[in-house]
Amino acid sequence: MSSEKKAKIAVVGAGIAGSTIALYLAELGLDVTLFEQGKSLVSGPPICHLHAGGNLYREISDEACVTLLKESIDLLRFYPNSVDYRPTVVAVPLEDSGTPQELFSRLHRLRDEYQTLIEQDPKNRVLGESSDYFKLYDRTTLEALQKEPTPIKPQNLDEWMIPVSKNIDLQRVKFPLIIVQEYGLNIFRLASTVSLALQKRENCKVLLEHKVVNIQEESKKWRVESKNRLTTNSQEFDFVINSAGFRSGKLDDMLGYPRERFVEFKAAYVSKWEECDTVWPEVIFFGERGTPQGMAQFTPYPNGYFQLHGMTKDITLFEDGLVKSSKTSAQPQLKTKFIEKIDKAWNPTDIKSRSQLAIGHLAQYIPAFKSAKVVSKPLYGAQQIPGRDEDRRTADVSFEGERYARCEIVKASSVLTMADSITQQLISLGYIDKSLYGKREFKTLAEVDEESISSYAQSLCITRNYPVSLAKRNIV
Ligand SMILES: Cc1cc2nc3c(=O)[nH]c(=O)nc-3n(C[C@H](O)[C@H](O)[C@H](O)COP(=O)(O)OP(=O)(O)OC[C@H]3O[C@@H](n4cnc5c(N)ncnc54)[C@H](O)[C@@H]3O)c2cc1C
Fold it and tell me: Which atom of ligand 1 is nearest to the CA of 13?
């Protein structure tokens, strides 16, 4: 097909993967239709952390951490308004079998890789100077920081450490503590940015509340059937992108494509700490996943709001929450109790008890946090992990034949690698010119202004029943 004849692309599912690829391909001039069964874009499982170095994951390889670093820098440059510019503190609790020292060689490698990326393109200097990528804090330095006034707007790593030094129980952790330039990624601001950008693109039709119920191949084209409340529609496309998140297997099953994947249901809890009047970095307390001492994650938002993860089966993880595809279906079957939580609601008793456990889990290390209150339903959902390794954290896209792509990201940061692979495939099919490969700067995204992003992000919090502070950034 010549590049003059516009290819018609169907994107099924508008999470971060589907919304980004729809915008990306529309910017390249293709004729895109984005189907989403929900009422708004990027409303799936939560995203709060930009994994710029994968330092939350001791179990993955150094290579995977380097990939996360590169992809995160790419994403930060693409969606700068969705990033919360605050570092992350990594602490190893006394009872944990690991040590901070085990992390040093990886941190040095990541710092060197970051410096190389800056040398390749100075615009990659988005995590500060490479020499400040991480810093170590021994007990004496932390005790000295306790005497400093807490800054309203921290200007350097030492200032970010002040609230940590004053509030965490230094008897409970091994030294040194590590601070690293892994920032936050705000799902409400990202949903807002990509929605506003897509509204500006006439060549991308966004069909909300349209569930794709069938896809069939018909003489080198795809027939996609979708349903909304009133009608059933059927349209023909040249290329289909399956970005249905944890439901991707359902589309594979429609077409008879086998695929191995896991699906995992998880939740993070939303709390308010009234007494907190300061800006925090994110803080991670390591622990073995799935045990009562599983990793605790303390993610700050403005005005004393904190998102909490506890990698135990009573908090973020769930008994039977991880399921696998089978020989007969590419769709892992989550139990009804999880599907009901996703499609309907949580029961209030569960919200209260799990959120209280999350507060208690963090209060082991930050004692004053025990006064925090539960303020809303959790942020939750199911995520897919392609392949056979349930610990996999970097994945992008796989193809079935020439004209069917599956977006299989595990972390948000992989979406641009995914976009590059799909672009490459569309180039080989002759749908777009090869000069467009790897493009990153797009006019439409640059035209979306901060005020509109902020205002729509806050309205999304209201419609989704979360506090509006979750759409705000700590440091503006
Ligand atoms: C508790 C938790 C915390 C997490 N924290 C982070 C984090 O800090 N950082 C990070 O990078 N990642 C995080 N993740 C992972 C991240 O949320 C997911 O990897 C990411 O959201 C996947 O995006 P996606 O676009 O592939 O899928 P989704 O966001 O699930 O989007 C898929 C979309 O497809 C739609 N859809 C499905 N089937 C159909 C159909 N038939 N027709 C039409 N529409 C359909 C769905 O409604 C949905 O909107 C977390 C996940 C969980 C569960």
Answer: 34
Q: Which run of H or of E encompasses 134?
A: strand 134-137
Answer yes or no: do 212 and 79 share one domain.
no
Residue nearest to atom 37 of ligand 1 (CA): 244
- Does one domain contain both 247 and 342? no
The alpha carbon of 425 and the centre of ligand 1 are apart by a number of angstroms equal to 23
At residue 208, φ and ψ (nearest 5 deg) are: -80, 155
Domains of the chain: total: 2
Q: Do 194 and 247 fall within a single domain? A: yes
210 CA closest ligand 1 atom index: 43
Concatenating the DSSP letter of every residue in 81-133 gives GGEE---EEEE-BTTSS--GGGGHHHHHHHHHHHHHHHHH-GGG--SS-GGGS
Yes or no: say if 396 and 408 are a contact pair by the CB < 8 Å rule.
yes
- The secondary structure element, H or E, covering residue 234 is strand 232-237
Determine, yes or no, domain membership for 464: yes
184, 282 contact by CB (below 8 A): yes
Range of the domain at 420: 8-45+188-259+395-471
**pTM beyond 0.90, yes or no:** yes
Q: Whose CA is nearest to atom 38 of ligand 1?
A: 244
Q: Distance, CA 157 to ligand 1 centroid (Å)?
A: 32
pLDDT mean across residues, the chain: 96
| Alpha carbon of 276 to ligand 1 centroid (Å) | 31
Where does the pLDDT of residue 3 fall: very low under 50, low under 70, confident under 90, or very high at 90 and above?
Answer: very low
Task: Kindly state whether residue 51 falls inside one of the protein's structural domains.
Answer: no
Question: Tell me: the pLDDT tens digits for 407-439?
Answer: 999 999 999 999 999 999 999 999 999 999 999
Q: Ligand 1 mean position to 52 CA, how many Å?
A: 19
Pick from 105, 104, 100: nearest CA to 142:
100
Q: How confident is the model over 123-151, as a mean pLDDT? A: 98
